[in-house]
Amino acid sequence: MRGLTISTRVLLGVLLIMLAAALAAPLISPHDPLRQSLLLRLKPPGSADALGIFLLGTDDLGRDLFSRILYGARASFAVATLSVVVSLAVGVTLGLVAGWVRGIAAAIIMRLVDTMLSIPAILLAVLTVAVIGPSFTSLVMVLGLTRWPRYTRVAYASTLQVAAMPFVQASEMAGASTARILARHVLPNIAGPLMVVATSEFGLMILFEAGLSFLGLGIQPPAPSWGSIMSAGRQYVERAWWLTVFPGIGLFTLVLCVNLLGDALRDRLDPRSAGR
Amino acid sequence: MASDPVTTKPVLEIRDLALAIGGARVVDGVSCAVAPGEVLALVGESGCGKSLTALAAMRLLPRAATLAGGEVLLDGENLVALPEQRMRALRGRRITMIFQEPLAALDPLSSVGTQVAEATGLSGAAARGAVLAMLAEVGISDPARRIRQYPFELSGGMAQRVMIATALISRPAVLIADEPTTALDVTIQAQILDLLRRLAADRGTAIMLITHDMGVVADIADRVTVMYAGRIAETGPTVELFAEPRHPYTALLLAALPRLSDAPKAPLAVIRGQVPLPQAFSAACRFADRCPLADERCRAEQPPLREVGKGRLSACWHAERVR
Question: Which domains are present in chain A?
């Protein structure tokens, strides 16, 4: 925490609170997010009945919106984390290999990267999910396997740079195997820029999850997701504004926090880019 | 071609090494040998092929360079023909190398202890003990504190000591030191050379020292091989070679050393002309254009390396006339 600016601390605080709320959803949510009650349809925020207060109101099936948002945050964090892990693993491995062996293998990998980057990721994701069918696993895999090229680019460029450094040559002289050099010496030295990319990708993944769920291709009802809550609330915008506004605020806050933290991380790792 | 005369059985022997970059033979017919405990200096100006020769011995040539012929024998085993896996097992264990920029040669994100320990293949308390002992042996004070430090906390001389510790901890038979003191100031340079000298003697390590600095050579080397434009000009024991060079290039190099007895502001001695480009190598002696002794024969025919005294070889038609 040393040396962090006030704004960074606030952002970090908000993010951690959201993460904690998501993790603790089963403990802190006032209602069962799946329990329907036709008598309690579209109650405005603050309504109360025998079951307790509906802090953020209820949805068209009488489910507590606050509980659903808490559970929806779990979906966002889970999908974003896992898909970032998948794309990091794929992207960094390819980038390391390309940067280390160079030559024809690098040309093939990097042209594949260019190709992937020229296809809109969301379109590719929509197409793939539509073909293989929506589920939590397919969502993670599709997002993970369409979003690796940025990591590959960064890992490739950084690996080229680090591989030319004398300490890498020195470990070759000492008889270290290629795998060992890559894992022990190259990877830690390229981790900084990769973490910056991963943070910005994390924000994007949250948006993609919400977007795909909004389109009905992500988390499947009745399981809550911010995207699907908003999608369902769309029809009631005039009568029940809370169904779209509250998950929207959640999404906005989370993505903004993550992106600004990514910027702060970048400035910290590379002071020259600060303020840019 | 005469082979390099060493007094005892050599541990590393390079025979007739030839390296090519593109079509140019940048190293041609280089032979040298080092015996256990001996320091051989490979001297020459930038681009004469001394570093490439060393990298060829490690089998870690840059991509652009290819082996065009010759053998590298380590304990009689021809490294050139070894499968990569076996070669990797020898690197660091039997033959290893240190470089000019010690700070750049250490991983900035890994502590001194971790890096030295990595070269041992040991772990835990055994590794720690070995690392502490080795660091003490290379003259690092308070090794227990140093092993927790990171390279940015070290001075250049300290970093080179760490590199030497890393290189020698697994008791390799051969250490190739490529300009190990060039980046260091003169007093530290002397300390590091002393250290290398002592370790070579104590542990029976053969050291091949690559340098362009005749002062360094005089300090530490038992024998010297002078290279010029990818070929060996002259080889011999340090004392005799300095006293009586048998190749005009060596003679001019020694004459170019500034001395305290020189008159103040006297112009520095220079060797006129330039090293020929590898593309322009011809059948002639490569030094002919700059040589005061050059005649028709020198411009027509490359002189072979021949014996010109006890333990001395020279590649000059006029070796006996050099002074």
Answer: 58-273 (1.10.3720.10)
